[in-house]
Design brief:
The chain has about 300 residues and is α+β, with helices and mostly antiparallel strands. About 20% of the residues lie in helices and about 35% in strands. It has an eight-stranded antiparallel sheet with strand order 6-5-10-2-3-9-7-8. A four-stranded antiparallel sheet has the order 11-12-17-16. It has a three-stranded antiparallel sheet with strand order 13-14-15, with no helix packed on it. Strand 7 and strand 8 form a beta hairpin. Helix 1 packs across helix 4.
């Protein structure tokens, strides 16, 4: 039976393994789609696919099989839509948003109402959490490094710097212990007051300023939490990091480290394609050896 409620998720702060009740198993091509009432798995969001899906297994008794993909789906009670096929936005009345666990067709014999154990690959999770945390912190450093290029008042981040990241970003991709963010430096950004004159020639200076800030912030071991208004998939979640200059809050559906004490270094590099008007920041994170492999 198709669910009428959102999946309950524990990936922001919960355990990496949990029991759940099967709500639906359906076949789509050469794969089976498994819906459960709750899950520790983080799914990829097709509308903003920055952080990819968790890896792991689903087991019924002693028989466990690989979860080969995990994606957001939605249902109006009559049909299940998966990934990019979802026709409505989150919060649409009469719709339930669900976590779809994908396994090979026929790989596991379960039925509606069965209990299963869902287990997330801890190493992969912590590497993605590391990359996602580095992405957000590096964005704050970039905002500060570019602050002097604004000629008009614009929205600011939690550190009271012009929020270049949110005003210019066009794509973000989280990788294990890394992230790649692309920013559009076009007419729209210039109209808002951003001065792009000589930007390409000053990249080294800009990133030096950002990396100096990052080194100082890492040294503080600043705490990080993911705050949520509730356990349902569509409930609002925010990344919150308390730095000496202020506290930044960013709506975020991903996973993160518990503090900057869990990394030895966060460094960023910049490149600029003047022909297409895009700047790319590549962020790398070196974790400490003592990071605990647990959900955040």
């Amino acid at each position: 039976m198709l669910p009428r409620r959102d999946t309950l998720v524990s990936f922001p702060n919960g355990p990496l393994s949990a029991e759940a009740t099967v709500l639906l198993v359906t076949t789509q091509g050469d794969r089976d789609l498994l819906l459960t009432d709750s899950t520790p798995f983080h799914p990829v969001d097709p509308r903003w696919p920055d952080q990819g899906p968790d890896r792991g297994t689903v087991a019924a008794g002693a028989a466990g099989v690989a979860v080969v993909d995990c994606v957001i789906g939605a249902t109006d009670g009559s049909e299940l839509y998966v990934g990019e096929a979802v026709p409505v936005r989150r919060g649409e009345q009469g719709w339930a948003f669900v976590v779809v666990h994908v396994v090979a067709s026929g790989a596991i014999d379960v039925r509606d109402g069965d209990r299963v154990t869902l287990t997330v690959d801890a190493g992969h999770r912590i590497a993605l959490s590391s990359g996602h945390t580095g992405c957000h912190v590096a964005a704050l450093a970039l905002n500060a490094a570019l602050a002097g290029r604004w000629r008009k008042p614009v929205r600011t981040d939690g550190l009271d710097q012009p929020d270049f990241d949110q005003l210019a970003i066009v794509s973000s991709r989280i990788h294990p212990d890394a992230a790649v963010d692309t920013y559009r430096i076009g007419k729209s950004l210039r109209k808002k007051g951003f001065d792009a004159e000589g930007l390409a020639e000053r990249l080294a200076e800009i990133i030096d300023v950002a990396n100096e800030l990052l080194a100082g912030w890492v040294a503080t071991g600043a705490p990080i939490v993911v705050e949520s208004t509730g356990p349902a998939l569509t409930d609002l979640r925010e990344w919150v990091c308390a730095l000496p200059e202020g506290t930044q809050r960013i709506p975020c559906g991903g996973t993160h480290l518990g503090s900057l004490a869990e990394v030895d270094a966060i460094t960023a590099e910049l490149s600029f394609d003047e022909e297409v008007g895009e700047m790319t920041m590549t962020t790398s994170v070196r974790r400490t050896s003592s990071v605990r492999l647990q959900a955040r």
